[in-house]
């Protein structure tokens, strides 16, 4: 059967597996939760990685998802192919069904075949499907089980192919779960082939036969031994499958390209409309015919999806990491709009059609549409300015290439009159051409412009051609490959290690710390020392204690774990100091302890939290919720948490925002928070709330980087703040006492940080402020102005006085240096008819040295001036040549040879050049050889 919409395919997939006892699980964020090994969520199994590794346990053993994925950067990077092939995308949705030790190969194969071929579901003709299995190797035998199960569901033997480990063996990483897999392929027909006139069999035409579903059978645990990898059968084999929504939509909608499905055609139409609206080409485009469609529109449509979803999940354009990839995606889309003629900002318009198309499945997009558009507008504006700067840089690079080629080939352009610089370059290029010398524009330097300023490659190659010089494409590609290798090396997916085995099979710890600071009779389930389970911890030793119940909160959600004590079963004797608590496996609490009296597995203890420490932490955590809401109220709804840290002494909150927060805004934020504190609003906690209800009905904010289950805990503070949160909080806002902001600054591009204190911390802050006011009063004396204003006035006056003194000092230095070389003509040495003046001027900076060079060239009338200075072990050199001599001797060559004598290098224009060096002790000798260097060049 043919489906009318990709949305219907998504829904039917999830509904099918719900009917097979699977839990429908929401898509995880594109920013992997607590997994530094991944750049972006790139597969459906990412959110279940800890479950497969044994680090986390869920209350269900079957799941089905439609997972948002991005593959652009790091290990998975096909960015340059997107838009130019039928099936490459930056953003896509991965449909998947999962079994955590429940069903295995037989059921997974049966479910897949039923969904694909049943008339009640997708209704695909079985004669157009092919299956593959693992052929086996020295470590793992042929997957005969999968082969038989495919036969059992009705797949003919001639349609089951055996492939090697590259295609049909999957591993999470160098170690951990792994196993064979089966792939299902669909025959798009001869028209889709690489050569439609040739009817090629399966396996010989990648365009015609498209993989639509991969079934991974996790049945081994791979470990590394001195003798090589060791594969051990898993006690509970599991299933992980993945089917691209875009690919199956292509099949079910009867088209040859993903871009011809209804997941893309509305976006492509919008791209064409907005590009033309902003000055683009008025061209006739058949939106439904992917093969005739200009690639640029496919790029814009694809990148609009990735951009919208990444920003919605908290990623902002930046110069590194995830933000850098987002910036490249946005800029690539803008470049392709320009290729179709757009000369104004257009890409931000694309957010709306993406939200209209996908907002039903992902309702968070609707609420964030305005914020996403603002981010894109800001980035488009920034890119336009960047391209202008990049264009100037490219012009300078081309000019310098011509000059350097002239200098290195001893080409001299003579002129008695001052020649404008651009004309000088043209003359040099003309002479180079007569000598059959072709300057080559550095590919490596052009790649830097490509990366830093987003300069399109074709733009740079065209500019080189227009200037009459060659382009070093090999150097560009080499630099690009090196950058990609660095990116892959910095994001090595799948390297996450399992927790120590002692934790993996333990039952969950019952956390009773929300309602009590003390739990009596907690049983010791395990003791750990240096990552290894031990039967006993002796007095004086440090280790970890796992209990069946506890009152200690463990590090989570930005809140640090509690400290306190473990008491013996007599309820009076402290047997261990608790220094903190963590969760090495989801639900298992490990207490970091320093033992006072010996502890053994099976002992019972009382857990007693340091109440004063907990209450201080709670004040700061509740204050964080109020602060988040106040930031959104004052700065805008685009503000979203990007990280936090809450302990007993202060709170730190990172959030998305483009500019610094003004002092007046900070005061507004502080006032809003403390207004809520004074109202003494009750802090309401709702537990076991379905996540749909929490987000869509209660309007709860989800916190960045956190992983949520199907049922969540909601913390609500009146109508002011509602967030998903597992932390501990005050009973009412009045318990915070007062919240005082103590700092605001930048963390990275688009991310700001505020810090604050509450309770006694705020009191101490006010005491310090009062002490400062008292000292200021003593400094500035009686004044009608407020102490802070009086101090600012005093400092401003002192700064103005300092500026005046610095100017006077610079003038004295210049006069002194000028006086020292005032008799320039007599101090100069004549070499082959050219006057050469070399002087040491340690007191001057580079700017002053340039001014002095101009002054001395004027005094000489005709000649060469060489100045050198040494400061803090570093050498600065500058050479000036009067215009009448640049045809005979050039400043760049002079400074290059002198710089070599002081361990440096440099260059510049024929009339002025600079250099640096590292050997200050050699400066006098180098200046002494200046006349010799000039003479040699003459």
From TrEMBL:
InterPro entries: aa-tRNA-synth_II/BPL/LPL, Ala-tRNA-lgiase_IIc, Ala-tRNA-ligase_IIc_anticod-bd, Ala-tRNA-synth_IIc_core, Ala-tRNA-synth_IIc_N, Ala-tRNA_ligase, Ala_tRNA_ligase_euk/bac, DHHA1_dom. One of its GO terms (cellular component) is cytosol. Keywords: Aminoacyl-tRNA synthetase, ATP-binding, Coiled coil, Cytoplasm, Ligase, Metal-binding, Nucleotide-binding, Protein biosynthesis, RNA-binding, tRNA-binding, Zinc. The keyword Zinc applies. GO terms for biological process: alanyl-tRNA aminoacylation; negative regulation of DNA-templated transcription. Zn(2+) binds at residues 621, 625, 725, 729. It catalyses: tRNA(Ala) + L-alanine + ATP = L-alanyl-tRNA(Ala) + AMP + diphosphate. Its cofactor is Zn(2+). Belongs to the class-II aminoacyl-tRNA synthetase family. Catalyzes the attachment of alanine to tRNA(Ala) in a two-step reaction: alanine is first activated by ATP to form Ala-AMP and then transferred to the acceptor end of tRNA(Ala). Also edits incorrectly charged Ser-tRNA(Ala) and Gly-tRNA(Ala) via its editing domain. This is Alanine--tRNA ligase. It comes from Edaphobacter modestus.
